[in-house]
């Protein structure tokens, strides 16, 4: 259990922060940027939950917990030392990716196929979910970039990739099963 008695520590006042393994890195490091963007995404999910109906809200609650798992995973780079750690590090698993895929399939089965690209919007929930989708894509790009030069759990990238798809399909569900999707009309304003 995490206990936070004091919120400010002053340890980062000079521009560095501690990773989950105790190493100190610059606050602008690729790793901190990747898990910081995941935290930003989690905040947007919290905003989406304000207007979500019960079934979507329950799924978003699970996603918020997964995103904390994902941030914990990213903040601990030394995966090869997991077995030696005093406490087993929290890692994203492929079971979490599989759950997203199953949820996507269930939601998508109830939707008509897309005949055009859609614009972010429609209902308030759909608009929020599209913001989540785009931030998830940015988090994914940052995790991939980090993985080009530092260890990253491959399940993290897969989860973020699937999560952006989940948000896209959930936005369509939130738009009256896709009936209220805002369709892109190429060249409409020429």
TrEMBL record:
Molecular-function GO terms, alphabetical: ATP binding; corrinoid adenosyltransferase activity
GO cellular component: cytoplasm
Substrates-to-products reaction catalysed: 2 cob(II)alamin + reduced [electron-transfer flavoprotein] + 2 ATP = 2 adenosylcob(III)alamin + 2 triphosphate + oxidized [electron-transfer flavoprotein] + 3 H(+); 2 cob(II)yrinate a,c diamide + reduced [electron-transfer flavoprotein] + 2 ATP = 2 adenosylcob(III)yrinate a,c-diamide + 2 triphosphate + oxidized [electron-transfer flavoprotein] + 3 H(+)
Biological process, per Gene Ontology: cobalamin biosynthetic process
Domain Cobalamin adenosyltransferase-like, first and last residues per copy: 7-174
Pfam families, per the entry: Cob_adeno_trans
Pathway in which the depicted protein is active: Cofactor biosynthesis; adenosylcobalamin biosynthesis; adenosylcobalamin from cob(II)yrinate a,c-diamide: step 2/7
The keyword Transferase belongs to this UniProt entry's keyword annotation: yes
Alphabetized UniProt keyword annotations: ATP-binding, Cobalamin biosynthesis, Cytoplasm, Nucleotide-binding, Transferase
InterPro entries associated with the record: CblAdoTrfase-like, CblAdoTrfase-like_sf, PduO-typ
Matching NCBIfam families: PduO_Nterm
Protein's recorded name: Corrinoid adenosyltransferase
Species in which this protein is naturally found: Falsiruegeria mediterranea M17
């Amino acid at each position: 259990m995490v206990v936070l008695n004091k919120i400010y520590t002053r340890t980062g006042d000079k521009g560095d922060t501690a990773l989950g393994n105790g190493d100190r890195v610059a606050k602008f490091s690729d790793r901190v940027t990747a898990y910081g963007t995941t935290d930003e995404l989690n905040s947007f999910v919290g905003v989406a939950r304000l207007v979500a109906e019960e079934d979507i809200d329950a799924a978003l609650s699970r996603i918020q917990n997964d995103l904390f798992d994902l941030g914990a995973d990213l903040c601990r780079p030394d995966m090869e030392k997991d077995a030696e750690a005093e406490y087993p590090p929290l890692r994203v698993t492929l079971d979490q990716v599989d759950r997203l895929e199953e949820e996507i399939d269930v939601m998508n089965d109830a939707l008509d196929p897309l005949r055009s690209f859609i614009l972010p919007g429609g209902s308030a929930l759909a608009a929020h979910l599209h913001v989540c989708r785009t931030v998830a894509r940015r988090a994914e790009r940052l995790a991939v970039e980090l993985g080009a030069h530092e260890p990253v759990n491959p399940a993290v990238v897969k989860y973020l990739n699937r999560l952006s798809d989940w948000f896209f399909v959930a936005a369509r569900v939130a738009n009256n099963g896709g009936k209220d999707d805002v369709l892109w009309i190429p060249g409409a304003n020429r």
